[in-house]
Amino acid sequence: MVSQTPISEAPQVEQEEVNRDLVKAVTSAIKKKSPQDLKKLVGQLHESTLADLLENLPAKKRNQFIELMGDDFNVEVYPELEEPVLAQIVEQMPNEQVVDVVRQLDSDDAVYVIEDLEEAEQTKILEQIPEVERAPLERSLEYPEDSAGRLMQAEFIAVPPFWSVGQTIDYMRETTDLPDQFSEIYVINPDFHLLGIVTLDRLLRTGRPIEVNQIMNSDLHLIEADLDQEEVARQFERYNLLSAPVVDQDQRLLGVTTVDDIVDVIQEEAEEDIHRLGGVGDEALTDTVFNITKSRFTWLMVNLFTAILASVVISFFDATINEKVALAVLMTVVASMGGNAATQTMTVAVRALATKELNPVNAVRIVSREGLVGLANGILFAIVTGLVTLVWFQSSGLALIMAAAMVFNMLVAGLSGILIPMVLERFKIDPAVASSVFVTTVTDVVGFFSFLGLAALFLV
After folding, report:
1. Cα atoms in the Cβ-side hemisphere of radius 13 Å centred on 197
2. Pick among 3.60.21.10, 1.25.60.10, 3.20.20.300, 1.10.3720.10: CATH of 12-146
């Protein structure tokens, strides 16, 4: 007979999402300055859920929330926060409290907490941390933002090659200062050069007298500390890694990058590409009105100038449009179809460039393919729009011009959608940011010029 747990004794299920009622209740507890009520409300929340809750609270309430929680506040929440929220919280905290938080976190998470502070503030905080703990943080901060050196954690287990399996196991049992979680042990020489890696499952399945150099894996995937995090993520994906050693220019072991950090990198890079394709930069939902306005203004201004350029092209044919009013109705169809087709191609191209799937080896084939796709769609939509124009305006000449302009602009759209990102990439300009402006300009200008130009030659 299967026993049943009484409802009153059933384990509580953690809340996975933040809802309006929870935010309202937490805000009320903060206003009443009631730590007891607050701890009842959030005591069972996972750190990621708690981070979501903090991000949904008004800015002025966040630090009050942390103060009321006191020692019961889980410091693992800080690495889960978005950068603008984290920066706002840390800036309002006394240095002594920041020091306490940093010392409780793994080195990679500690770096994330303080990396956006002013250099003077960073120095003040680091000076209050014991040298043994401070050294890896200072080393990580020396590397560029979004590099492997910033991602790595300095906590890892390294042993000499002549140690036996038994010595290694005893060392891990007796040493208290070990990483919270690990799956690999690194075998190094006296100069800290990595010789190989032993996985925990291999270690535990091997007899105690065997030396680790006999069971280590020498097929290493080393990550240079100054390597961009996007390339690091690509190596994890390519080689199905759970962790990877990070080394300096002399190939000395500095730290380790783990897959949980890489998941965050993949999400961050994908989100960044999507934002940049839309011309909104690196903004977050928690950014202020001022920061978002400033971020979007630049590319809106660029779009304004490109729109003016398209209007100038139209102005060249004002006499033509005056004589044939139908042209004003139809010309936007050509430009719009070209713009949408180019955006489809551009989106695929930008992502393929970011993931290195589009490279010199397959560039000609991919460009040719997109050109043929543009031509095929151009012919198909030329037939559709030509027939619509014929039925609508009862003009076979206008229908043929509409069809010809559609074919030409869709072909140009397909080619520009892939060639413009490739050219920008070649000149070290981020195609995710700049492509949409140039692609839209090309399809608008070509669309208006081809349609109105043909009309000026053959109709008016």
Report:
1. 19
2. 1.25.60.10
Report CA 45 to chain centroid distance, whole Å: 26
Asked if CATH classification 2.40.40.20 holds for the domain at 158-258, the reply, yes or no, is no
- pLDDT (tens digit per residue) in 77-107: 999 999 889 999 999 999 999 999 999 999 9
- For 167, counting Cβ atoms within 10 Å of its Cβ (0-12 exposed, 13-18 middle, 19+ buried), the class is middle
Half-sphere exposure of 357 (CA within 13 A, CB side): 10
The DSSP line for 320-381 is HHHH-THHHHHHHHHHHHHHHHHHHHHHHHHHHHHTT-S-TTTHHHHHHHHHHHHHHHHHHH
What predicted TM-score, i.e. pTM, was given to this entire model?
A: 0.72
Convert the pLDDT of each residue in 32-62 to its tens digit. Answer: 999 999 999 998 899 999 999 999 999 899 9
Q: Give, in degrees to the nearest 5, the angle at Cα 190 between 186 and 193.
A: 50
Question: Which of 1.10.357.20, 2.40.10.10, 1.10.10.10, 3.40.630.30 would CATH assign to domain 289-458?
Answer: 1.10.357.20
